[in-house]
Amino acid sequence: MAADQSLVGAWRLVSYEARSPEGTEVFPFGVGATGVIIWSADGAFSAQISPGDPSGDVEPNYVAYFGRWELEEASSSVLHHVAGAFNPGLRNTVQRRGLAFDADRVTLTPPTREGANTMSLVWERTAPAEAGASVSS
Fold first, then answer.
1. How confident is the model at residue 98 (pLDDT cuts 50, 70, 90)?
2. Is 44 left (phi over 0), alpha (psi -120 to 50) or beta?
3. What are the tens digits of pLDDT across the range 33-86?
């Protein structure tokens, strides 16, 4: 990861997809999920994902959590130290996400447990004026 590629700023969700161990594409938050994640220069973060249209047997949920973040360059990861969350099970946990940059996009990949879906969340940097505007465009 290049040192000049920073997470600081607001990002909108482009896609949230998963692959089953058999290779089937799954949309954990339905088709057309929307979201925003903001990483501030002082180490605070906030993330929200709103479900799209349900797909298959998927029962989309709403995700909202916040806290402190740190970049772990050696492993190309970001660590989210969760202070508060809509889901009580996320509170006071550390959520590791792999990072891959591609121009103004970053892909976050949560760790995959054996036999579970492989997930990937693609985020696109927003212009400063867009941060408070609709994130669905």
1. very high
2. beta
3. 999 999 999 999 999 999 887 666 666 688 999 999 999 989 999 999 999 999
- Residue 102 located in a structural domain: yes
Q: How many residues does the chain have?
A: 137
Residue pointed to by tokens 């990483």:
39
Domain range for 30 is 9-127
User: d(Cα 19, Cα 116) in Å, to the nearest integer?
Assistant: 9
Q: Considering the chain, what is the average pLDDT of its residues?
A: 86
How far, in Å, CA of 66 to CA of 59, rounded?
23
- The CATH code of the domain that includes 23 is 2.40.128.490
Phi-psi region of 103 (alpha: psi -120 to 50; beta: other; left: phi over 0): left
